[in-house]
Amino acid sequence: MNTSITAVERAGWSTPLVIHGNLEHGIACASQWGYDGIELHLLDSDAVDKRALILSLKSHGISLTSIGTGPSYSQQGIFLTSPFSEKRKEAVRRMTGHIRFGAETGAVVIIGLIKGQKKDCADSGHYMDYFNDGMEACIREAGRLGVNLVFEVIDRFESDWLNTVDEGLGLLHALGSDNLLLHLDTFHMNIEEPDCADSIRRAGGKVGHIHVADSDRWYPGHAHYDFESTFRALQEIGYRGAVALESFQYPDPETAARRSLEVIKPLCQ
Description:
269 residues; alpha/beta; eight-stranded parallel barrel; globular
């Protein structure tokens, strides 16, 4: 398993992404602090200087493990199930751009809140139609380019569906694409799963990405989450992907990053 850390160009102070600000500076920080890779949360992959980012990744010797897509939803209200057709089209355009960037870099592309929530859809009866239409285009592009899309399983307080591993597995079965996997997060699992390690084992080879934060959303080791049992389960299922820190910046980004590695890195071996 490889270590990774989340970064975003612009976000509120309470957003649980560790590095805020210029993305190339974030890449330098991730490398300096000892991470194998970085997860960039992007509004629009087609609007960033991808060449500069790729050169920065290479010069600092780290990889782009994952592309977060949530800023479109949280900052601009653009998501796959919007009641407005132009926003649905824009969400698909952005997702296909993220997928192309993923093909260039080997990153997985996260589908979290960009899927939208049922409460945001003016007519909930159309929600799954909108979702399936958007996903059809995303799956087609991911299959063409060989990119994995990972559905984030998010707790009930932040998303009004796809809250548990079992729901995620059901969705993968319904959509039936080899390019779709699950993205599990220790913070969300701690709320929703009766036994996090058992849920990981049940997901097995469908686990495509991992976020880590402690039970209080601080860095691992700050509270009471059982990371040892989680990592044993990940080893048992043969997970070899990235483990990305998605926590608050508290007490400051570098301290959060370094203290997380003290807990997580030995468990990744």
